[in-house]
Design a protein that fits this description.
The chain is built from 6 helices and 13 strands.
Length: about 270
C-alpha cells in the first residue's frame, strides 16, 4: 500500500558560492510498506481551497518537524548533521512550569518611568514623551499633545498652503462639491447657503473642492480564478458569461454610488 506525508529533506546547495552548505525544505514523501521511496521535486507550499484546508496543511507541516530529517544525497537515510542536533537539543530542553520556583525571580530594575507610571527602561526620550501632556510648536505656542506635531494655527496655515497648490477650476453650479479634507458635501447652491447660515460663514471662508464620482465596478470572471480547475483554461460557463454581460450593462447605466474629493479647488460666488 502506498502512503505519503510531509517530511523535512536536507539538500546540499548547488550554488558554487555556497559549496558545502546545507538547506532544508519540506516535501511530500511517498512510502511503500512504510519505507520512503520518492519525494516531490520541489518543496511544497501552504495552499488549499479554504481555511480548514490551510489549517490541515500547516498542522502536518508542523508535525513533520518532530520527525528525523531525510538526506537527499543519501536517500532515504536520515540526515546526521546540525538540524538533528538542534532538534535533539529542543527535545532535551528543561521543562519549567509557572508554579515552579525556577520560573521567575525578584530583581531590582532601574530605568525611566513616565508620569503615567509606564516603565521604559533606558529609553529616556520615550518616557518623557509618554509622560508629557503638552508640546511646544515650532512657532513657540504650547498646545495640548494629542496626535499633532503643530498647534492649531500652524496646522490651519499648512492646510491652506496645500489647498492653494491645487489647480483652480470654475464651478458649473451642478458638479458635486465638498469641503477640503472633510466629509461635508454640497449638491447645489442651496446646500452651500444652508451651511454658510448654520455656521455663520462667508463664501470666502470655504475651501471648496470639486468631487469625483465613485462608480459601481464591473464584475469579471477573474473573481472566480482561484476555484476554477486547471483544465478549464479559465473559461466560464456560457450561461454565466451571458448573465455577467447583462449585469455589467446595468452597472454601467447606474448613477454614481458616492462621491469623494477630487483634484480641483473652486469657489462659490453669490449672484
Amino acid at each position: 500500500m502506498s502512503t505519503w506525508n510531509h517530511r523535512v529533506l536536507a539538500h546540499k546547495s548547488k550554488n558554487p558560492n555556497c559549496e558545502g552548505e546545507v538547506y532544508f525544505q519540506i516535501h511530500e514523501v511517498h512510502y511503500k510498506k512504510g519505507k520512503p521511496t520518492s519525494y516531490t521535486e520541489n518543496g511544497v507550499s501552504v495552499g488549499g481551497e479554504g481555511y480548514a484546508a490551510l489549517q490541515w496543511v500547516l498542522s502536518h507541516m508542523q508535525e513533520c518537524l518532530t520527525k528525523p530529517v531525510l538526506d537527499v544525497d543519501n536517500w532515504p537515510n536520515e540526515f546526521k548533521g546540525e538540524f538533528i542536533l538542534k532538534n535533539k537539543a529542543m527535545k532535551d530542553e528543561k521543562v519549567i512550569l509557572a508554579s515552579d520556583k525556577a520560573s521567575a525571580s525578584l530583581q531590582t530594575v532601574k530605568g525611566w518611568v513616565s508620569s503615567t507610571g509606564r516603565f521604559f527602561g533606558k529609553d529616556e526620550r520615550a518616557a518623557r514623551y509618554a509622560g508629557s501632556t503638552h508640546k511646544k510648536c515650532e512657532c513657540g505656542v504650547v498646545f495640548e499633545r494629542k496626535f499633532y506635531t503643530k498647534c492649531q494655527e500652524c496646522r490651519n496655515k499648512a492646510d491652506t498652503e496645500r489647498y492653494d497648490k491645487f489647480e483652480f477650476k470654475e464651478w458649473d453650479g451642478e458638479t458635486m462639491l465638498c469641503l477640503y479634507g472633510s466629509d461635508e458635501y454640497f449638491s447645489d447652491a442651496d446646500d452651500i447657503e444652508y451651511y454658510l447660515t448654520d455656521n455663520d460663514l462667508e463664501p470666502s471662508d470655504l475651501q471648496l473642492m470639486h468631487c469625483k464620482p465613485n462608480h459601481f465596478t464591473e464584475v469579471t470572471g477573474e473573481r472566480w480564478d482561484e476555484i476554477m480547475p486547471e483544465c478549464s483554461d479559465g473559461k466560464l460557463p456560457s450561461v454565466l458569461v451571458d448573465a455577467l454581460e447583462k449585469l455589467n450593462k446595468v452597472i454601467m447605466d447606474l448613477p454614481p454610488a458616492s462621491w469623494c474629493e477630487g483634484k480641483f479647488r473652486t469657489e462659490y460666488k453669490r449672484f
